[in-house]
Amino acid sequence: MEITIKSAAEMAKVSRNTIYQAIRDGRMSRSPSGKVDSSEVLRVFGNPSDRLTRQEEREHIEHLKTQQQNLTPLDMMSAEKEALYQARIKALEDTLRQTQEREQQHIEREEWHRRQIDKLTDAIKLLEAPKASAKPKALFDRLFGG
After folding, report:
1. Which range among 10-19, 25-34, 54-63, 95-104 shows the weakest confidence by mean pLDDT?
2. Are the beta carbons of 13 and 48 closer than 8 angstroms?
3. Which domain holds residue 35?
4. I need a surface site. Which of 32, 74, 86, 116 has the fewest CB within 10 A?
5. CA angle at residue 128 from 123 to 134, to 5 degrees?
6. Which residue has the higher pLDDT, 79 or 36?
7. Distance in angstroms (rounded) separating the CA atoms of residues 52 and 38
8. Is 2 within 8 Å of 41 (Cβ atoms)?
9. What are the beta bridge partners of residue 3?
10. Mean pLDDT of 90-115
11. Is residue 54 part of a domain?
12. Torsions phi, psi of 37, nearest 5?
């Protein structure tokens, strides 16, 4: 459906100059009657519902400024408290991490000690084992005490 340049600008939420620039750049075509097809507007500028007009942008910015100015000292205090709590949380997380690392070191040290105890126990068992005689005495030596 063909529409006027003004209607195209309103539809795309851009200025008429932007429409003319798109036509000059060759991004958008124009019919001999001077109108543009609505599908061309959508193709070049996309869905207009995703975009704010300049006036809507200005109004939105003013609204944000007003909201910021209307912050009470209590709101500012809440922001300060939140920052303080965030800092405390970070400090506690660091402490927890350090504690977990120390616990892991203690577990590893305990395992090492257990292995050492096992080695020493094995060594003691070997030392306490009855010693076998080197060679049984011959019959002659047993009889004559040699």
Report:
1. 54-63
2. yes
3. 2-67
4. 32
5. 105
6. 36
7. 19
8. no
9. 36
10. 93
11. yes
12. -80, 140
